Structures are given as structure tokens and as C-alpha cells.
Amino acid sequence: MYKKFFSLIIVPHSNRKFKTLTFSEKKVKTIAGITIFLIVLLVVFLVDYFSMNVTRMKYNRLLHVNKVQKEALDEYEKLGNKLEDMEKYTEKINVLAGLKSPEIMKELSIGNGNSDQSFEAPQNPLTPGVDMENLQLLRERAGIVGRNLNELVGFYENQKVLLASTPTIRPTNGWMTSTFGRRTDPFSGKTTFHWGIDIATAYGAPVVATADGVVAKASYEKIGGRTIIINHNWSGYQTVYCHLSKFNVKPGDKVKRWDIIGYVGKTGKASGPHVHYEVRRDGKRLNPYQFLLEEE
Predict the structure, then answer these.
(1) DSSP state letter for 269
(2) Is the distance from CB of 293 to CB of 279 less than 8 angstroms?
(3) pLDDT tens string 145-181
(4) Of 36, 233, 259, 281, which one has the greatest count of Cβ atoms within 10 A?
């Protein structure tokens, strides 16, 4: 039987002889089949590669979403715990400052001061949108509580300033020889009203400010002798120190409680070395004894 052959003639660029390759029909078909198989195999591989690449990109994107959601969940829990701690701290400050009044709590936007609320983490940390919305709400609430806490701390600091500017101590160490109220005047023998307290002590003993304030007056008066008047503007009180032998401050000076403002003397209308001490508010003279809170 006659067999078909295919010849491949290779013509070189040089003057060398032609080269001829002869293939039988069967061999050509075999080579063609193998070539087609390899091409199909290559196409399948490329399709699979690109498919896997798309899957890999989706997987990486899911990993990123999972990471973001996990970080959001962690931040959510941390914010919840922080908010709970801040509410407890707010309650402590309330106790320290004595601010349990509902009116004050309402004024500071604290609500009812209840810190028993608990913050539960979302059930599905991979649900997009929902957790981020809850997280944003929690952030806003934490911000509100933080601002309220700052207001409460400021309120408490104001209370400290108020207490610091309220007279609470004796102006000098000694013996109280005359109280606030009616008494027999040692010079005239008549019954008069004594507008302060007298504390007798050694001549030249230090006289201290009984609260924070500003020296409004340091001058000589006919009855009070060398007299110092201090305005405690924050609390609205005013204190008066009479019969001093010497000043240690001048008008306009800022003083703190326990600062030495002068020294005991017997200037003015005085029978011996002592300090005449008065407490006033809104022009009204008050009993200084009610403001002596320190131990004897």
C-alpha cells in the first residue's frame, strides 16, 4: 500500500547543501495531536491559574475585612470597658464633691449617674456596617461622658476653690477673751454689741489669713488701730483683723490661707495685745466662731 510522506526542506543562508526532513503521515498526525493536547493543557492551566488568582484576591479581601471587623470589635469592647470605668469614676467624684442631687446631675448632663449598664459585643463580628455603626455610637457616647466628666471635675475644682476662700481657721493662736454678741465695754462700762471675737496672745505673734483672698485694705483706724481687710471674692466673704502691731502685706496682695499678713499688737482701742477678728458677707457681720473649724 502506498504511504504518504511529508518533507520539510531547510535552506541555509550559507552555500551549504539543503537539508530535507521527511515525516510519514502517521508521524505528522502524532506530532499535531501532541501539539494540540499541549495547547489545550496550557489553556486549561491558564484558566485555572487566573481563576485561582481571582479566588486568592477574594480570599485576601475577606481576610482584610475580617481583620478590620476584628479590630472594630476589639475597639468596641475597649471603649465599652473605658466608658464603664469613666462612669464609675464619675460616681466617685460625685461622692467626693457631694454631688448626689438630681438637679446637679441633670445640669451636668450625667443623667441618673447609673453605671450598671453593660456593653455587649456584637454577635456577628463579620457583619459589615452594623458593628461600625454601633462602634460610632459608642464613640459618641464615650465622648459625651468624657466631656461631662471634665465638667464634673471642673465643678469639683470650683468647690475646692470655694472651700479655700471660706474662712475656717483662727487668725492667731491664743485665748478667746471676748465673743461675738452683747458685752460690757471695758472702756466705757456700757453694754454694747461686739461684732467679732478677740483672741489674746503674745505681742508680735504672727497673724495669718484665714482663707485665700486679696488684701483690700491695710491702714490705721482710730478704733481698730492697724487693720487689714481681706476680700475672699470667690466665696463672697470678707475678713477683718484689727489692733496689729505691723503689716506684712499691702493692698492688692494675693494671700493664701495660713499666709502671715501681720503681727499681734495693741494699736487703736485695745487694753492689751490681741486680735479683733471679724467675718462679713454682703455687708453683714457674722459670728466668726461659727467659722473656726480647726481643733483647739
Answers:
(1) S
(2) no
(3) 667 667 766 776 777 888 899 999 999 999 999 999 9
(4) 259
Rounded to an integer, what distance in angstroms lies between the CA atom of residue 34 and that of residue 32?
5
Domain 175-291 adopts which CATH fold? Glucose Permease (Domain IIA) (2.70.70)
103 contacts: CB under 8 Å, gap ≥ 6: none
User: Would you give the end-to-end CA distance of the chain in angstroms?
Assistant: 141
Whether the Cβ atoms of residue 196 and residue 288 lie closer than 8 Å to each other: yes
CA 141 – CA 152 distance, rounded (Å): 16
Is the full-model pTM beyond 0.90? no
Average pLDDT over the chain reads 80
Q: At what angle do helices 130-164 and 25-97 cross, to 10 degrees?
A: 20
Contacts of 210 (CB under 8 A, 6+ apart): 167, 168, 169, 170, 171, 239, 257, 277, 291
